[in-house]
Amino acid sequence: MPYNPALVAPMREEMVHLGARELKTAEDVDAALGDQQGTMLVFVNSVCGCAAGNARPALRLALEHAVLPQQVVTVFAGQDLEATARARQYFAEYQPSSPSMALLRNGEVVHFVHRHQIEGRSPQSIAGDLVKAFDRHFGAGAVA
Amino acid sequence: MFHPGHHELHGVTVVVETAGPLTYVGRFDTEDAAGVHLLDVGVHDAAAGGTREDFVRRSARFGVRSDRKHLVVPRAEVARITPLGAMES
User: Of chain B residues 5-44, which have a CB less than 8 A from chain A?
Assistant: First the structure.
């Protein structure tokens, strides 16, 4: 059962303020991820106050870096159930967890951040790993 | 502490190694007289094939494939508990 929308509203707004585009339906997801070109970060949002509470600030810090994904989109696990399930079909090789992040390049998952790589870590530390992934997969030297 | 007011490992994805062939990977919930409570648990039985190391490595890289929603591991069977995030993928 989805969470109370009022409870998750601040968590949604935090992502929108970062510049992320919310995908609330399976159709939204297909429009964004189907035949995806260029670079993209998909953030699977979560109500977990500790894991997601560090993951969102981590993404904010990472998005201050010079090398960035061309698009940032987000689905909300436990809230937008259909959209989340559809998004996970695009990175089905990875087991579902939330929060989590998938980095895509031309439709291919090039890097994945699982919940267990977020738990107990500071936003700065998580952001550091994200920045390295941005440089490696989205930087000038990345293979197209 | 990851979740204030709870066990220090509450909410953390952990590897629970036992003295026997079974290894579990799941989210630590709590611990009580019955044992260690795990959620969304992947179970590996070395007696059925494959190594514990490969199971843990694959879980770290691709995530935890949940075989059981909730599982209690008796404390006497637990040899070691390690956060999955601390394991090399």
Answer: 11-13
Window 49-68 of A, Cβ < 8 Å to B: 49-51
Q: Between β-strands B68-73 and B78-83, what pairing exists: parallel, antiparallel or unpaired?
A: unpaired
Fold category of A5-138 in CATH: Glutaredoxin (3.40.30)
Residue of B77, B61, B89 whose CA lies nearest to B24: B77
Residues B80, B85, B88, B89: what is their CA dihedral angle, to the nearest 10 degrees? 120
Record the pTM: 0.91
Q: Which residue of B has its CA nearest to A114?
A: B63
Q: Closest approach of chain B CAs to the CA of A112, in angstroms?
A: 8
Domains of chain B from N-terminus onward:
13-84 (2.30.30.100)
B13, B62, B64 member nearest A93 (Cβ) = B62
Question: What's the token pair of residue A109?
Answer: 């998952």
Q: Report chain B residues whose CB lies below 8 A from the CB of A94.
A: 62-63
**What are residue B36's DSSP bridge partners?**
B31, B73
Q: What is the ipTM of this complex?
A: 0.86
Any idea where the domains of chain A sit in the sequence?
A: 5-138
Given B2, B3, B63, which is nearest A97 (Cβ)? B63
Q: Mention every residue, 6+ apart, whose C-beta is less than 8 A from residue A89.
A: none
pLDDT in tens, A25-81: 999 999 999 999 999 999 999 987 778 889 999 999 999 999 999 999 999 999 999
